[in-house]
Sequence to fold (161 residues):
Amino acid sequence: ADSMGADSSLPMKLLREGKVVDVECPLSDESCAGTGRLLHWAGCQLQPTHRPVVELGYRPTDPASGAHLDVFISRWYHGSPAQRYGVYALNWVASVNGTPTPDLDTFIKVTESLEDGSFVRLKLISLNARPKVLTVKLDLHYWPTWELRRTTDGTNEWERV
Fold:
């Protein structure tokens, strides 16, 4: 059962074909708070899949665990390794050098030991479910890895981790 309960729904009255109809609309756990975490890696911006993308109706899963992939590329920067090697927005990172990366924490663990100048193989999955494998040469001098997180102390500010 989810955190809201298995039978969480909202009763609504709709007008259909000139008649008032009672319906039950299921509720979801999707947050309205927006993005709370950003990771910059090789000149692309990675984040957990944000709500508008989830609402498009397609979200790939990790073949091993069945969990939704949650390393989403939301932006890339001109002149970066991401741009030079074709790592563009609107893709999920499914694996790095053959190791599955279902979430940002796993992605960080897999990539933190990679050295400047090394080549990295990424498996990406696009919004239309097409897989793509490509190689990126890291430039950690000009494009280091860094993370931003929204604070949870009530100020709702961003801090660099």
